[in-house]
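Thread: "does anyone have the structure for this chain?"

Original post by V.I.:
We have the sequence but no experimental structure in hand. Need at least a predicted one for the grant figures.
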Amino acid sequence: QFTVENLAGDLLPSATLQQRIGSGFNRCNMTTNEGGIIDEEYAVLYARDRTETTAQVWLGLTVGCAVCHDHKFDPISQREFYSLSAFFNNTTQEVRDGNIKDTPPIVTVPRSQDRQRFEELNATIPQARQAVSERRQSGRADFESWLAAATPSMFRQHEPVRDLHVRALLDEGTGPEVSITIDGQPRKFPLAASAEWQAGHVASQAVRVSSGGVAEVADAGDFAADSPFSAAAWVFLPANDGGGAIVARMDDGQGFRGWDFWVEARRVGTHIIHTWSDDAVKVVSADQVPANQWTHVAFTYDGSRKAAGVRVFINGQQKPTNVQADSLTGAIHTDVPLKIGQRHGGSILSGAAIHDLRLFRAELSASEVTALANSTRYAAILAKPVGERTEAEINELFEWWLAALDEPSKAATSRLAELEREERTIAAAGTIAHVMQERNEPAKAFILFRGEYDKRRDEVAPDVPGILPAFPEEYPRNRLGLARWLLLPDHPLTARVTVNRLWQEVFGRGLVETSGDFGVAGQMPSHPELLDWLAVEFRESGWDLKRLFTLIVTSATYRQSAAVTPQKLERDPDNRLLARGPRFRMDAEMVRDHAL
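Reply from O.Q.:
Generated one for you, tokens below.
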């Protein structure tokens, strides 16, 4: 089990989480992200490392001596080395580790109390996705019926209103005040003297930020770090790399405590901060917002205090993000007011126009953000004569109809979102493990002249050294087949190498003193018959390490006194003849294993 799961746990049929974690043994090699490396060269080095380690652990052979030429002592050719290396050459692991600890492939390892539910979610979420897909197919006829009677005015009524906290249309175009609705109550607030007006998008006018913010509200936007909230707005950004806040409730003078809806270099996102930067979350979109055109932007936050709980949307589509901080533990409450167009102490979004700003005391679903973003877009499509609507436009309407009007689709999508949110929460509370993963298309392997990565010679297939038992034809030519080959009953090395290493742990020196080299250059066994007998006992017991350990430590040889006469010490200083017991204590791990 140890051999199979450490070398190939990921390749077992219906591999469990524990079996996949076991395959992380071959992910323990050193990796790099240095700018000057050659990826192909380091891919060769990684495969070489795994090959040499596996051969030394299970075979007790120094196969690395055959990297550049045939082994000078053991009957292992260079061809055989690269054939063996081919078993470890077919991984999806990227050469560059990105300077992150969670370099794929990885698996989520939930806490023990969450593990059963996490496994249930792994089975339930694909079913929920299938339900969403099936409704997409079956709902087309219902959509066509709706489309025949649809009018542009129908869209406004389907915009999300649940938990709407703040709405500022910012379309007055003149006057000293702007109207902002707070929790359903329209109120008037002073407009900053520096604010300007320009042509709008969902109304005739929109406010443009100049040398200061637009307006401030003292009693709005005071969200908690563990409560969900969302923000959305139409923005018109200039073609520059400036930064600033669309809206914020953030105190720059108190470690930037609070939150904002942020723009930097036309990328949008949010800061959620107790103290910047050691107790904060920062997430921004990987994509830029188009310059000099109206664009709908939004972010949602699930209250998890994790960057994984933030999603960013541009024109109703969720976008990839860059996480720049992910360590929020404290509160984000602040006494400063909510400000539109800037933070409390600065970060003015100069030159940008803002339209139809909305804040929600909830994490909007992707479909709700889409409906909010595209209401004006779809109204324009419906205003066209039927014959002028393109197929792409009709498909856009279909996606909106599924998300906003079709109850079966909404129910299926909502259930999927709920399950995925629960999965993210469990994953955030757990940890990760590095695992192995095979490519769909096997990678090619070659003999490398003098071991140089770019001097390829003959192509080779995965295989084992000819001096050892032949690789069974019925075994797959992958790491799982290699693991099973190591456990063949007639394999001469696996059992001997393993029992010798355990003997070394107990006695301080193996029956073969060179436990990592059973080849020609290694030492001969001091008691070859004993080594053979222990190897057979180990194999016939079902590879039972606990039984082998018990057998050794209850033997008369181990239980001898460690006392020694000067004459015996002179004759056998290293105790190669086993005339006395070991004179050192077992380490803590061995004591624990023995107790278990």
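V.I.: this helps a lot. The chain has a mean pLDDT of 92.
O.Q.: and Residues 115-138 form the longest helix (24 residues).
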